[in-house]
Amino acid sequence: MILSDRDIKQYIQQGKIKIDPSPDFKTQLGPCSIDLHLGNVFKVFKVSSYPYLDPKRDIDFEEIMEEIKVPEGGPFILQPKSFVLTTTKENFSINNEIMARLDGRSSLARLGVIVHLTSARFDPGWHGKAVLEIGNLGIMPVILYAGITRICALTFEKLSNPSETPYLQQADHKYAEPDSPQASKINHEHKK
């Protein structure tokens, strides 16, 4: 069951969903979702000596990325055909009775901006800022504003039963409680 706007407000009041800073329901709450804002830390790939990215290679993907910080309200220019990792401004957590899904916003997609094509599920027990994969498929640069642009929408689904092993209790979680964008850790899977 997908939570309605009424349910979302009730779950927030009951502490089953926590969002910090607290959302402005007038501007952020939709019929069955809540919008989150763009964070202010971005990671982009640097020019590298590696001719390609190999998930089996023992390299630290963080080392081939550059971090860019933008002040609150400041612009980040997303160049055509570019890719960036960032986060939401908001931290959120969900209890072990629900899961969340993240979608990009149609208004940004119509400018060529894609948000979070994969990894859109947040398992029960999640806590942190959502790390976003953003690309510009368009032919023109698009300016996004840190802390101001509503970048994505979260929907919530109630599980048939509470999760037996919430996300933070899983032994193999790689991206627990992020506060800033993290590069891929897929090569850790090949070390096992």
Automatic annotation (TrEMBL):
Functional description taken from the UniProt entry: Catalyzes the deamination of dCTP to dUTP.
Binding annotation for dCTP: R105, S106, S107, L108, A109, R110, D123, V131, L132, E133, Y167, K174
Pathway(s) of this molecule: Pyrimidine metabolism; dUMP biosynthesis; dUMP from dCTP (dUTP route): step 1/2
The keyword Hydrolase is assigned to this record: yes
Gene3D superfamilies recorded: 2.70.40.10
Active site: E133 (proton donor/acceptor)
Assembly notes: Homotrimer.
InterPro entries, per the entry: dCTP_deaminase, dUTPase-like_sf, dUTPase_trimeric
Top EC group: hydrolase
Family under the similarity heading: Belongs to the dCTP deaminase family.
Keyword Isomerase included in the entry's annotation: no
CDD domains reported for this sequence: trimeric_dUTPase
Catalytic activity: dCTP + H2O + H(+) = dUTP + NH4(+)
GO MF annotation list: dCTP deaminase activity; nucleotide binding
Segments of this protein annotated with the region Disordered: 167-192
GO biological process terms held by the UniProt record: dUMP biosynthetic process; dUTP biosynthetic process; nucleobase-containing small molecule interconversion
Pfam families cross-referenced by the UniProt entry: DCD
Record's keyword terms, sorted: Hydrolase, Nucleotide metabolism, Nucleotide-binding
Name of the protein: dCTP deaminase
EC number(s) from the headed UniProt entry: 3.5.4.13
